[in-house]
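Researcher: We plan to redesign the surface later, but first we want a full-length starting point. Tokens attached.
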């Protein structure tokens, strides 16, 4: 079997089966808080204590979660093909499942940054508004999360990977958040084969060459098997 160059975009759906909530869940943290209050620079400026509390809770939830069969299947896919996992998720479940080539385009709960000097470092489990930046000492530390209105990480690397890919897959993502939602259109323009794996068709489902519907923990291993069987 020829070695594929695969770009995989993952969203909240792949982590949901490990117990982590999504924007659209009826229960949990997101149901209790407006995105504008906890996931924007303006919200952080208005009430940094609330924002830190919110991400401390998310960090604690993520620390208790374990990777599921979808995460471990993608790690196995890395061993058979050239794979870049681009995730919108801020947890570390891909890495915990064994994946090594992971790009967190929306940042990571495990990292902190300074809103004054932009220094970055490993985040403690609990962050507070009084935490000083280890570089400039400003009490302006924040989670290293890409909030709404901010530029995602790694776009140049993602576009370069798409330009040489033979296959693009989107797993567990709604197709509503840009620029990630536009990756399938770019892949199609470049002639890259595309597949969507989701609980239900996404907003951009019609753009994909193939759609596989079902829980990520079963559909992803089944899909990976088609690419690794020799």
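Model: Full-length starting sequence:
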């Amino acid at each position: 079997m020829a070695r594929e160059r695969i770009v995989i975009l993952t969203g909240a759906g792949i982590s949901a089966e490990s117990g982590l909530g999504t924007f659209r869940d009826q229960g949990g943290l997101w149901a209790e808080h407006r995105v504008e209050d906890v996931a924007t620079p303006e919200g952080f400026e208005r009430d940094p204590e609330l924002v830190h509390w919110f991400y401390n809770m998310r960090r604690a939830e993520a620390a208790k979660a374990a990777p599921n069969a979808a995460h471990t299947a993608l790690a196995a896919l890395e061993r058979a093909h050239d794979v870049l996992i681009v995730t919108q998720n801020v947890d570390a479940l891909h890495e915990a499942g064994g994946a090594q080539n992971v790009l967190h385009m929306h940042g990571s709960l495990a990292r902190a940054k300074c809103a004054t000097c932009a220094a970055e470092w490993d985040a403690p489990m609990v962050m507070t508004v009084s935490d000083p930046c280890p570089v400039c000492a400003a009490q302006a530390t924040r989670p290293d999360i890409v909030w709404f209105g901010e530029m995602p990480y790694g776009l140049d690397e993602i576009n370069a990977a798409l330009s040489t890919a033979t296959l693009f897959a989107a797993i567990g993502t709604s197709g509503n958040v840009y620029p990630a939602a536009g990756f399938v259109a770019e892949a199609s323009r470049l002639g890259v084969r595309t597949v969507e794996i989701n609980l239900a068709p996404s907003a951009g489902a019609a753009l994909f060459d193939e759609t596989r519907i079902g829980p990520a923990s079963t559909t992803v291993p089944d899909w990976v098997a088609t690419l690794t069987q020799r």
